[in-house]
């Protein structure tokens, strides 16, 4: 097979693996690793060293630089403080305990030198959102634990990468020199990394904030500058580039009034492409003999990491919190390793082997063994464990609402007041700000983006209402969540004849979702009613006040939206079926502002502006 054919095959298989992972709701790292092992050591079709030759090392270096920069863009220091004491402890105390204990165990169990043992310990502290998020969605633990696991993964991703880079920099600086000289070289590298990373971030932030680049060049310019800074840092101080770009991303993430949404989405897309190809290539370089060479000591080390190190980190981090025993048991079991560990370990091993560290070759199979075992074992067992402990989330009866405009906020408030979980998502910051003032849970950004996949909290939410005026985004969001919630749990407003034709051109499945509240109900109609003073009211249906009485009382003034039965199950009024609320149910409807006597005398309505 020609080199060009192999490259094309890697690209095609990368997409296939990502699709399969999305379809079966498992971390993408699993099919990517399996694919690489099949192509490389099993079938012998792909030999990355022969295919890339001298370009393998630069490709891996640049790919890891982009991955670390993109990951560090998600680290906002205010979020560490804003997600509870347990999360803060896990990404500080827990991370350091995991690092130190694993490093010591690796030294004594595997017999590696302290340098390699410390590097391995630093590499496997990271869980990461790309492996945690699919697992949380599959397990569906209670909201409190899901949030702890989610934010631990998001925050520890860049912090763990920074720890691994610092350990690696110290090892390189200490090679064949006295300890004092090693400290001086390490201090120089750290000083350069933080100074150049901070300066480059400030300069790039200034350029983006003041519009020095036209809109269509912003993403490409950012990528080019990041790679340029990476190369410049390495030229000034050997192997300082990874630290520099990691610091650069962290500084930009915490720069006020700097809109990074589009750049972050671009970097996420690029990272998915790079990660997919990189994992197949790195897995293809592995040899099954390397796993055999690890022997029983690796099995013992892995068992201690799973059953002792993680529980120790969780129990120490939980001191002073209100977590129950069973909460800590579940948290102790869910800690799959992922992208940063695999990508960075392979790069560091390549670099250290070139520098004469023969033990470094064993780090990669050991890291990959930890990744595969934790992801597979915990994916299969975490949900039964959560069920046994009684920590599964109840049925997802809540709503994700795309759109945080005034009308959508009124709908969300009425549902929330009825005890139904909601979350509003919007790309308009003003709408999000107003929703927050109403104490409504929100997500700022495109809910169909990679960022949303890693960050949006869908705990307790199982249906989507598309109530936004964004004609370009509405179909994308609808189709994205059809794949996640199911096609029958996604509902949107009919946009009129023009949108009907457009939706028909997209997919028949999307057109069928345009059934919310009735065939003639459009976003414009609801917005107009809301502007004219219509209110959303909750009205109980009783034996003495049936739904027929309700319709007779309000007539065309009422636009029924939802009905809650006596078990608090929520039904939506759609065009697909006739819904007749029974006694004991509650009807939530938008009532027009036309005056009518005795509006508040019957039914005991509660209104929401």
Count of DSSP-assigned helices: 25
Rounded radius of gyration (Å): 27 Å
Structural class: alpha/beta
Shape: elongated
Largest sheet: 5 strands, parallel
Instruction: Measure the end-to-end span.
Output: 66 Å
Amount of helix: 55-70%
Query: What is the strand tally?
Result: 10
InterPro entries: Cation/H_exchanger_TM, Na+/solute_symporter_sf, NAD(P)-bd_dom_sf, RCK_N
Protein name: Sodium:proton antiporter
Transmembrane segments: 6-22, 29-46, 58-75, 87-110, 116-136, 148-172, 178-204, 216-236, 242-258, 270-288, 294-318, 330-350, 362-382
Membrane topology: Multi-pass membrane protein
Description:
This protein is 63% helix and 8% strand. With 609 residues, it is an alpha/beta fold. The relative contact order is 0.10. The longest helix is centred in the first third of the chain and has 31 residues, at 143-173. A 5-stranded parallel β-sheet has the order 3-2-1-4-5, sandwiched between helices. The chain starts with a helix and ends with a strand. The chain contains 25 helices and 10 strands. It has helices spanning 3-24, 29-42, 48-52, 56-72, 77-81, 84-110, 114-123, 129-139, 143-173, 179-209, 218-236, 241-253, 261-284, 288-317, 325-333, 339-354, 363-389, 406-417, 429-437, 450-455, 473-485, 497-506, 508-511, 523-531, 547-554, and strands at residues 398-402, 422-426, 442-444, 461-466, 490-492, 535-540, 558-564, 570-572, 586-591, 606-608. Mean pLDDT is 81; it is low at 500-504 and 596-603. Helix 4 (56-72) packs across helix 11 (218-236), helix 9 (143-173) crosses helix 10 and helix 15 packs antiparallel against helix 17 (363-389). This is Sodium:proton antiporter. One of its GO terms (molecular function) is antiporter activity. The chain crosses the membrane at residues 6-22, 29-46, 58-75, 87-110, 116-136, 148-172, 178-204, 216-236, 242-258, 270-288, 294-318, 330-350, 362-382. It is found in: Cell membrane. It comes from Idiomarina abyssalis.
């Amino acid at each position: 097979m020609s080199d060009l054919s192999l490259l094309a095959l890697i690209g095609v298989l990368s997409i296939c693996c990502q699709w399969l992972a999305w379809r079966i709701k498992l971390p993408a790292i699993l099919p990517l690793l399996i694919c690489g092992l099949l192509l490389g050591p099993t079938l012998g079709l792909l030999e990355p060293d022969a295919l890339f030759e001298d370009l393998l090392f630069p490709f891996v270096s640049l790919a890891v630089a982009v991955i670390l920069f993109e990951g560090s863009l998600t680290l906002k220091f205010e979020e560490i403080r804003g997600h509870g004491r347990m999360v803060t402890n896990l990404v500080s105390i827990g991370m350091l305990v995991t690092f130190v204990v694993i490093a010591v165990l690796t030294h004594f169990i595997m017999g590696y030198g302290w340098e390699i043992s410390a590097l391995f310990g630093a590499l496997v502290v990271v869980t990461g959102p790309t492996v945690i998020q699919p697992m949380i969605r599959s397990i569906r633990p209670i909201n409190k634990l899901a949030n702890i696991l989610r934010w631990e993964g998001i925050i520890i991703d860049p912090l763990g990468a920074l720890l691994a880079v610092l350990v690696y920099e110290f090892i390189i600086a200490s090679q064949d020199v006295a300890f004092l000289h090693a400290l001086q070289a390490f201090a120089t590298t750290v000083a350069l990394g933080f100074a150049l990373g901070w300066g480059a971030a400030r300069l790039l932030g200034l350029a983006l904030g003041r519009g020095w680049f036209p809109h269509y060049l912003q993403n490409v310019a950012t990528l080019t500058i990041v790679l340029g800074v990476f190369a410049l840092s390495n030229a000034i101080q050997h192997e300082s580039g990874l630290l520099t770009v990691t610091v650069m991303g962290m500084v930009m993430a915490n720069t006020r009034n700097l809109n990074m949404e589009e750049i972050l989405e671009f970097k996420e897309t690029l990272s998915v492409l790079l990660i997919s190809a990189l994992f197949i290539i790195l897995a293809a370089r592995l040899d099954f003999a390397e796993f055999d060479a690890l022997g029983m000591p690796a099995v013992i080390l892995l068992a201690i990491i799973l059953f002792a190190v993680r529980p120790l980190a969780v129990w120490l981090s939980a001191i002073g919190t209100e977590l129950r025993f069973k909460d800590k048991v579940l948290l102790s079991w869910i800690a799959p390793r992922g992208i940063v560990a695999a990508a960075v370990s392979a790069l560091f091993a390549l670099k250290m082997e070139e520098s004469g560290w023969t033990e470094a070759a064993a780090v990669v199979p050991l890291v990959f063994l930890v990744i595969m075992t934790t992801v597979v074992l915990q994916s299969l067992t975490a949900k039964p464990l959560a069920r046994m402990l009684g920590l599964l989330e109840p049925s997802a009866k809540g709503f994700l609402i795309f759109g945080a405009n005034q009308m959508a906020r009124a709908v969300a408030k009425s549902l929330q007041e009825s005890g139904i979980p909601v979350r509003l998502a919007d790309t308009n910051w003003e709408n999000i700000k107003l929703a927050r003032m109403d104490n409504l849970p929100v997500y700022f950004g495109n809910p169909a983006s990679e960022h949303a996949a890693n960050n949006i909290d869908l705990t307790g939410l199982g249906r989507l209402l598309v109530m936004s005026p964004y004609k370009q985004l509405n179909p994308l969001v609808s189709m994205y969540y059809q794949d996640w919630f199911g096609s029958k749990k996604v509902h949107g407003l009919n946009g009129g004849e023009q949108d009907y034709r457009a939706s028909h051109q997209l997919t028949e499945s999307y057109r069928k979702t345009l059934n919310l509240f009735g065939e003639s109900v459009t976003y414009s109609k609801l917005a107009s009613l809301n502007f004219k003073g219509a209110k959303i009211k909750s009205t109980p249906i009783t034996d003495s006040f049936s739904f027929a009485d309700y319709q007779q009382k309000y007539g065309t003034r009422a636009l029924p939206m939802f009905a809650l039965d006596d078990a608090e199950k929520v039904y939506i009024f759609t065009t697909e079926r006739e819904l007749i609320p029974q006694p004991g149910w509650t009807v939530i409807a938008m009532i027009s502002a036309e005056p009518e006597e005795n509006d508040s005398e019957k039914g005991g309505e509660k209104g929401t502006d």
